[in-house]
């Protein structure tokens, strides 16, 4: 953001790429379970931190959701008998801390929406696909030739960047892929300059990637970037890869 620039209303001010760290400060035993008090910090500033409380079952739920990544994560095993013993709780706390260290230092996992929601529920509680779909649907009211077919599975690691399968109404057999992303906290160009720059992208993509499909339409609207490509089911390698079940 430019120096002394006032952020526009509704502008995303949170930088999702700033890493989160987590440290278990204490534990408290209740009648039937143990809660772990965790201090989460964004970036290097100690002041930018907060506390969350998680149970082992919360860790287990997160770990089950992350299994699709195909990684071996060191979550301590379950224990049904003797799980309220002090020595066991202390040992489990060490194991859970190690688990947090692993997921917060892994570039892919640390930027995963599931992990962000686990560590920072106040800032990552929204359904970003639904929000993007609302923006896309609102925008295309003034572009009647386009039709949104369906949201696509997550592609890449950017939480707020979403993809949709599109079609042109008078060409129903042709499919295009649309990407939608908030411009985020680093936008410093004026809307006019940004619009001029964005219009150059399709020609740049074609000239720099002659063997790969270029963008058909690129522009910005309402502080949001929108871009669409021709959808090639059996063509461009990138789109072949993202159609698989591999987690980004």
UniProtKB/TrEMBL annotation:
Gene Ontology biological process terms from the UniProt entry: early endosome to late endosome transport; endosome to lysosome transport; negative regulation of monoatomic ion transport; protein targeting to lysosome
GO MF annotation list: kinase activity; phosphatidylinositol binding
UniProt keywords, alphabetically: Cytoplasm, Kinase, Transferase
Localization annotation: Cytoplasm
Keyword Ribosomal protein in record: no
Residue ranges constituting the PX domain according to the UniProt record: 14-126
SUPFAM superfamilies: PX domain
InterPro entries according to UniProt: MONaKA_PX (IPR037903), PX_dom (IPR001683), PX_dom_sf (IPR036871), SortingNexin/PXDomain-PKLike (IPR051837)
UniProt-listed SMART domains: PX (SM00312)
Pfam families, alphabetized: PX
Gene Ontology CC entries for this record: early endosome; late endosome; plasma membrane
UniProt xrefs under Gene3D superfamilies: Phox-like domain (3.30.1520.10)
Principal location class: cytoplasm
Residues in coiled coil: none
Name of the protein described by the UniProt record: PX domain containing serine/threonine kinase like
Organism: Pipistrellus kuhlii (Kuhl's pipistrelle)
């Amino acid at each position: 953001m430019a120096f002394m620039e006032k952020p526009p209303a509704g502008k995303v001010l949170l930088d999702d790429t700033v890493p989160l760290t987590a440290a278990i400060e204490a534990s408290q035993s209740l009648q039937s379970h143990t809660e772990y008090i965790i201090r989460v910090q964004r970036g290097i500033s100690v002041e930018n931190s907060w506390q969350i409380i998680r149970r082992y079952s919360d860790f287990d739920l997160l770990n089950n959701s992350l299994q699709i990544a195909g990684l071996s994560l060191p979550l301590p095993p379950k224990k049904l008998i003797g799980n309220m013993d002090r020595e066991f709780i202390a040992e489990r706390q060490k194991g859970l801390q190690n688990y947090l260290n692993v997921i917060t230092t892994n570039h892919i996992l640390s930027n995963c929406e599931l992990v962000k929601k686990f560590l920072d529920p106040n800032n990552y509680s929204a359904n970003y696909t639904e929000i993007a779909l609302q923006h896309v649907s609102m925008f295309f009211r003034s572009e009647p030739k386009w039709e949104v077919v369906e949201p696509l599975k997550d592609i890449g690691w950017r939480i707020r960047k979403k993809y949709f399968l599109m079609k042109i109404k008078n060409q129903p057999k042709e499919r295009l892929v649309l990407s939608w992303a908030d411009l985020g906290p680093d936008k410093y160009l004026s809307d006019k300059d940004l619009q001029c720059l964005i219009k150059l992208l399709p020609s740049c993509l074609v000239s720099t990637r002659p063997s790969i499909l270029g963008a058909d339409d690129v522009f910005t609207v309402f502080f949001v970037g929108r871009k669409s490509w021709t959808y090639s089911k059996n063509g461009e390698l990138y789109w072949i890869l993202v159609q698989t079940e591999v987690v980004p």
